[in-house]
Design a protein that fits this description.
about 210 residues, alpha+beta, Nucleoside Triphosphate Pyrophosphohydrolase, 4-stranded mixed beta sheet, 3-stranded antiparallel beta sheet
Length: about 210
């Protein structure tokens, strides 16, 4: 991704949070829950619970040459709902995010990609967690054998990009990683950051990407 100098309005203002005391609450292979006695930037005392993640979140948007994308559907435990998403997962913080993305694409969607673009860095819910993530676009796709985890049961669907974006805007796709990366890919297509034929196919032949 390209970066540019930050404007003046993005300069941090005021003092940061201060930690007075830390207490471990719970830990497993994926998360660590801690409780903090803190002083807020306002100077007020505050009790803060934090969910710490041991993995980097990974999201992969597979875009086919005809402008369709591959999504996976699955039952999600925390919200007790059925979620349509791009292939997603996690990679240990010390590992290469791209290797994790390649693994998730293969395991969940049964695809491998000849071209990879890192398009987005993000924080998923920075009020109560420290989870960070990276989003990729995968191009030049070929099928391989899928390798889901023992607890994963996926339905794989290949749908037009514009249709998936419409389901985001209608509130039918709620997964924040999927929402963010689909919107990022729309911006890339509209701004000419994909080859013109692919951009036109993604945008429904409207010519916005030319």
């Amino acid at each position: 991704m390209t970066t540019s100098p930050k404007p003046d309005w993005m300069t941090p203002s005021g003092p940061p949070w201060r930690v007075l005391e830390e207490r471990p609450v719970y830990e497993n292979a994926w998360i660590r829950v801690r409780e903090f006695q803190t002083v807020a930037p306002t100077g007020a005392d505050a009790l803060y619970g934090l969910v710490g993640f041991k993995h980097l979140a990974i999201g992969v948007l597979p875009i086919h040459e005809d402008g369709t994308i591959t999504l996976v559907g699955q039952h999600r435990f925390p919200c007790r709902d059925y979620s349509w998403e791009i292939p997603e997962g996690g990679v240990p913080l010390a590992d290469d995010p791209l290797e994790g993305a390649q693994r998730e694409l293969r395991e969940e969607a049964g695809l491998q990609a000849g071209t990879w673009r890192r398009v987005l860095d993000f924080q998923t819910s920075n009020s109560v967690t420290d989870e960070r993530g990276v989003g990729f676009v995968a191009l030049d796709l070929t099928p391989v054998a899928a390798e889901p985890d023992p607890t994963e049961a996926f339905v794989v669907a290949r749908v037009p990009f514009a249709e998936a974006l419409a389901r985001v805007l209608a509130g039918d796709i709620l997964d924040v990683i999927t929402v963010a990366i689909l919107l990022r890919a729309y911006h890339m297509a509209a701004e000419g950051q994909f080859e013109a034929p692919l951009a036109a196919a993604m945008l429904g032949g409207t010519g916005e990407g030319r």
